[in-house]
Amino acid sequence: MLRLEDVFYRYKNSDRDVLRNVSCSFEPGKVHAVVGPSGSGKTTMLSIMAGLDRPTQGNVFIGGEDLSTMNLDEYRREKISMIFQAFQLFPLLTAIENVCMPMEFLGIAKPEMQKKAVSLLESVGIDATKHKRYPSNLSGGEQQRVAIARSLSSGARVILADEPTGNLDKANGEAVIAILNKLAHEDGYCIVVVTHNMEIADASDIVFKMSDGVLTQV
Amino acid sequence: MGFKAILKKQLKVFIKNPGVFVQFIIYPAIAWMILFFMDFDAMTGGMEYIEGITYEFLETFRQNMAANTPNMVTMQATIFAGMALIPVMAGFIAEDIEKKSLRFLTMAGVKPAAYLFGIGIVVAFFALLSSVAFSFISEFNGVDFWVFVGAMMSGVLGSIMLGATIGILTKNQQNATALSMPIAMVVGMGPLIAQFNGTVANALRFVYTQQLNIVADSLNGIITETPLWQSFAIMWANVAVFGAVFIVVYKKKGIKE
After folding, report:
1. Based on the structure, what is the number of domains in chain B?
2. Which residue in A76, A88, A146, A160 has the most chain B C-beta atoms within 10 A of its own C-beta, making it the best mutation to test that interface?
3. Considering the domain boundaries, does residue B63 fall inside one?
């Protein structure tokens, strides 16, 4: 589904490659973990996969199509979703309004948008009593679940997660891992998680290790 | 599509933020109170007992105070254009940068320029409503009504540019407030001080809020040395300079984390 081929990346004004000859593929229906120490290049790889940066050398393919030939705005809006460590919900929008945001960008009609948002929130375990709550009135675990529902609302089939349990306690972290596994195994999403958390790695189907810009499958 | 969604999002954020929203109501409300509740007899009550003050002096003083009321109302509008909008704009942008919600917007395909434009339009729209309210309260009619609104919007645009630049430069709300408040104080309160001090008035003659106040004075029937077109030209020159600074800062620092 998502494939990196001989990818190199070097930041401007740097003489060192942050990613070196990275080749890998991420399949639908599976949870992939990318582990490695800080500064090893994990987040840079995620940014390239998200279309936020372009590789200095090499190619990224989605569904066989080369990312360099695609409109990056459309790619980010329709093909890829992201979950962040700090949730990054809009504090003055309710849970349901946050979930509706990506659909607003896609121009989906309001009734359809509301219906889908309710269904997504319920699918991640946020019951109706909390749909109109602001993020500050939700626990960290609930906020991350709202963020997951939001990432699903655009219809993208690839979910990139950057340390999704980094701000959560053990129980909430496990709940988030369970949701990500369910999304991959039952609904066929392609999930890529960048993490330091070995519990996520242990619960993943495929584990990659990033070390000094070199990616290897464990 | 992204721009429309940003407008909707910002509109919701604006309305749900009482600390911001109230400023667009409270400034015109205070202006209205100045106009209708100012009791000059009460203000000068007791002055007749001051030795040497004559009845004629007190009457003239009261009449002058009453005649200056419209000027006090429009001064309130000038203070609004300078003081309220700079921190509001800076705060909106700094909050989104601080909370990293911009990263989500980037992922949703929103271009930074569309994001900034979206916020600016929402702030300008509410400022336009407040400006119209100020113009009604000032009892401007016909062309004067729209000249005042036009002058206000020129000032609003200057403040939006300044606020956006500060928002990008500071990158968190605390710093945005710390930097924007002193600037807003100078820009907003400067024209008030200039009324009582010629040196300050001279120093501020190229500042947009000072020119906004001069336009208002002129519409209030006060004879000013600066022709209307010149005031508007200075205000638009301010907007152009702030716009150029904004573009430089935006290109250098951007709004991506």
Report:
1. 1
2. A88
3. no
CB contact under 8 A, A50 and B107: yes
* A88: nearest CB among B2, B95, B103: B103
CA separation for the pair B66, B19 (Å, rounded): 33
φ, ψ dihedrals at A63, nearest 5°: 55, 35
ipTM of the modeled complex:
0.73
CB A9 within 8 A of CB A55: yes
* Residue-number span of the structural domain to which B28 is assigned: 3-36+69-256
Is residue B251 a part of any domain in this protein? yes
Paired tokens of B25: 């109501």
Residue B219 maps to a domain: yes
Q: Which residues have CB under 8 Å from A31's CB, separation 6+?
A: A180, A181, A184, A185, A191, A193, A203, A204, A205, A206
What pLDDT digit, counting tens, does each position of B100-150 carry? Answer: 777 778 777 777 778 888 899 999 999 999 999 999 999 899 999 999 999
- Reported as a single tens digit per residue, the pLDDT across B152-203 is 999 999 999 999 999 988 878 889 999 999 999 999 999 999 988 889 999 9
Q: Tokens 């009261």 label which residue?
A: B62
Q: Which two tokens stand for residue B208?
A: 């947009």
First and final C-alpha spacing in chain B? 23
